[in-house]
Input
Amino acid sequence: MLRRTEPTPNKPLPPIKPQAGARHSGASSPVPPSAAPNAVAGGKPGAALQQQHQQQDAGLPTEKLPLPMLASFGVVSAVLLLLGFALATAERRAAAAALVQAASDRWFALLWTVLAPAVHGRTSGFKAELGLAGLAGNVLEIGPGLGANAPLLDPAAITHLTLVEPNRFMTARLNATLVARGFKPSQLTFVTKPLQDAAADAAQGSFDAVFGTLVLCSVPPSQLFVALETIYGWLRPGAPFVFLEHIASPHGSVARTVQEVVAPVFHTCGGGCNTRQDTETAIKALPWAVDIVGRQEGIQTVIWGRATKPSGLLAPGSLYKFIRRMF
Ligand SMILES: C[S@@+](CC[C@H](N)C(=O)[O-])C[C@H]1O[C@@H](n2cnc3c(N)ncnc32)[C@H](O)[C@@H]1O
Output
């Protein structure tokens, strides 16, 4: 039996040594529990030691903790920790977003290598109606991709061609295609940015034409208007924006239902393509003269046309549209 020892406050008891031969597992102990001096009847020798140490600890003198100091130390550390965590998270989030964007761009450059010939084949008739071959002077193409439109352009008539293509995995092939078409490197300027961020990268009011095919669907909806304003700003008065785009079908139509269903897949795997982008309405909201040259209805309706910047602020309709946009 264990003899209870009362601890004195200022004199801790000496540590208790286990008896030779005693083990921590009672089941295989060569010494019967009743024979071990530290054993509790029916219990384990280890438990007896623990119980005795607890009794010793209870007798130790305790210091009073300076609570206000401890609390303020805790609050300051928590604030610093939270601040550090928030900053590290923002950095990590930005790094992760850049990685995802790079992977998505690389994937889409590969995918478009496979898809572009077929898409171009199906739309080349519409492009011919747009008269890309007649574009001359200082010209800018938005989202040229791998250069599907290069064979339609006249390098002798275009004095300078600016290409606004954010996907850097496409620019080497785009450059090679344009040079093979007959453009000199000195005729070309590449801007590797989304067009809605590139307003300052090309001179305002200086372009004789801006054109793009199947690009505006990939501009985030919240930035579509800014993107179109950017194009508007680049054009000299009287110059056209020439476009071919797939657009959202009316709500409730079968085509729109399909567009809604496939939208997440197209957005994730198709370089940010939005099958429900209301590009036609957005184009018509700007104060230029819009001429829809053609329209092909289908599961993915396509429109092609021109939007010409007015020569003066008082050109028909432009002032009205401009004021309407402001309010
Ligand atoms: C479907 S591809 C069309 C490429 C080419 N215009 C054609 O018809 O083959 C869309 C192109 O637009 C580019 N793009 C996507 N978002 C853009 C943006 N915000 N500004 C400019 N180009 C963009 C993509 O990198 C891609 O090259």
Notes: The helical segments are 45-58, 67-130, 171-181, 224-234, 254-269, 279-284, 318-326. Residues 67-130 form the longest helix (64 residues).
